[in-house]
Design a protein that fits this description.
Number of helices: 17
Distance between the termini: 155 Å
Strand order of the largest sheet: 3-2-1-4-7
């Protein structure tokens, strides 16, 4: 830096005086030096450029470049130094390291890739990738992360595995949420998509090709070890993991159930698609409405070949697989589902309004040991829980009229039937007749009291009803007095343990008797 400042002072002195000698006297240098720097400036060359000094290692420059090029820039400087010393180089290792670094920098500058900006078109590209999801009850999950390149519309789905049927289900759900099919789908080179690479060409999985043909979409894969070709999907993965997966940064709680994770994914999609994107300056959901006009129509039937074999759901909300019954949600009774084994799990898939999806997953069982999950069935009613039996359901007009009295009538019928009471139907008709003469609520309360007390004889309900009416209207409440008690006292055993006085002689002498007849 000091030398550069001196050169600039020499040039300023020449511009001031216009004379080489005068400028040399002002700058304190020879006039030939002034003339040289002025000539460099006039020739358009930088006068402050340093002159290259001949170094001993310059004789080996060609060898260094050869080693660096042959190794594609991977050779270490210490290895190069050993080769040069064997050839007669006497310089230090520091000089070799500096020279090797310069050669590698020139090599990288000549081989650096120049990327042209990717100008996306609406309805053309869909990208998807996988992310490691949070654990649910200690079990690993995965996140399907997809986005449309033009509108930046994102979709994140939580799944248990990354098998081909799961990919098909996620693909169908993604396309139905987007409302159409793009021309291309870009993803990474997983075994479910590319089974091999021959001469740098990816060999597609035949079933994934069939999936693309079903939806009218071409599935392509990225160049191996080239993250630039799928940066959009990787950005979606990074954002989804930061917002959904519990970490020390976002302080999320662990997910106890898989449905909680699914809800978190839906909330994430609604949030990121409703806010303005940094590049487009508008919400992706608004851009998607415009991009839908360029998407291809969706097929009405989902691709179901990869989901396994079909089963019909029985009336008890179960399917039979290899002689074992497995439960499914009761809403799927009398519908068709697909079953397949994935490891030790049986995966059951159903196609609904929003596309295919996993509805149940069971551990593989053996014949004679059905796998039934309680959450697949509706909860029992309160009356059934209390009685431990079936809930009465009216089958005729008379039964409907009786059960309409209230819960007391229901309890009376259950208890009377269980105790073997006679004339149940006749007594039910009598209770209905009483409800026309008395308030129905009072009759229902009397029936409930009879059920609790176990009184099912003739006119028991009428007596209870009369007792309730008399107690509530005519008779005041009677309370026991504190001054009197029916409990026997302790006076009867107050002399317990005390010796009694001797009895008089039962046969006294007549001479000893006084005139009154008492012993003297």
């Amino acid at each position: 830096m000091k030398r550069d400042e001196e050169i600039m002072e020499i040039l300023e002195a020449f511009d001031l005086t216009g004379s080489y000698r005068a400028a040399g006297e002002l700058a304190g240098c020879d006039h030939h030096t002034v003339a040289r720097y002025v000539a460099l400036r006039e020739a358009g060359q930088p006068p402050v450029a340093r002159e290259h000094r001949v170094r001993p290692i310059d004789e080996y420059q060609d060898k260094i470049e050869e080693l660096v090029v042959r190794s594609d820039g991977r050779v270490r400087a210490d290895v190069v130094h050993e080769r040069l010393v064997a050839m007669g180089f006497t310089g230090g290792e520091r000089t070799t390291r500096r020279t090797v670094a310069e050669v590698k920098a020139r090599l990288r500058a000549g081989q650096r890739r120049v990327f042209r900006p990717w100008v996306v078109e609406p309805g053309l590209w869909l990208q998807w990738d996988w992310a490691e999801g949070p654990r649910v009850n200690g079990r690993r999950t995965s996140l399907w992360c997809a986005w449309l390149a033009w509108s930046r519309f994102r979709i994140v789905l939580a799944v248990w595995d990354r098998t081909l049927p799961t990919i098909v289900a996620c693909m169908d759900t993604t396309l139905r949420r987007m409302g159409g099919v793009p021309t291309y789908a870009l993803t990474d080179n997983e075994r479910t998509v590319s089974v091999d690479h021959v001469a740098g060409i990816a060999v597609r999985h035949p079933e994934i090709v069939a999936v693309g043909r079903h939806y009218g979409m071409t599935i392509r894969t990225c160049v191996p070890a080239d993250p630039q070709s799928k940066g959009g999907s990787e950005a979606t993965v990074r954002i989804a993991k930061a917002d959904i997966v519990p970490t020390s940064a976002n302080l999320l709680e662990e997910y106890r159930t898989f449905s909680q994770l699914e809800s978190a994914c839906r909330e994430f999609c609604e949030q990121v698609n409703a806010r303005a994107h940094r590049e487009t300056r508008r919400p992706p959901v608004d851009a998607l409405a415009e991009e839908r006009t360029r998407l291809h129509p969706l097929p009405t039937v989902a691709f179901t070949v990869a989901f396994g074999t079909t089963r019909r759901v029985n009336w008890d909300a179960t399917v039979s697989v290899e002689g074992v019954r497995y439960s499914v949600p009761h809403q799927l009774v009398d519908t068709r589902v697909w079953v397949r084994f994935h490891g030790d799990d049986l995966v059951i898939t159903a196609v609904g309004e929003h596309g295919p999806g996993e509805v149940a997953r069971h551990a593989r069982s053996t014949p004679g040991t059905p796998s039934i999950q309680p959450e697949h069935y509706p909860p029992p009613t309160a009356a059934a829980n209390a009685a431990g039996e079936r809930v009465p359901r009216a089958g005729s007009a008379a039964e409907t009229e009786f059960l309409a009295l209230g819960p007391g009538a229901t309890s009376w019928l259950v208890e009377a039937a269980g105790s073997g009471a006679r004339g149940v139907r006749r007594k039910m008709a009598e209770a209905v007749a009483l409800a026309k003469l008395h308030p129905p609520g009072e009759v229902d309360r009397a029936l409930g009291t009879a059920a609790v007390a176990g009184r099912f004889a003739e006119n028991d309900v009428l007596r209870i009803l009369a007792h309730q009416a008399g107690r509530d209207i005519n008779k005041p409440t009677v309370r026991a007095s504190e001054t009197h008690s029916l409990q026997p006292g302790t006076s009867a055993w107050s002399g317990f343990g005390i010796a009694a006085p001797p009895d008089p002689d039962p046969h006294p002498d007549p001479a000893e008797l006084d005139p009154a007849g008492e012993p003297s």
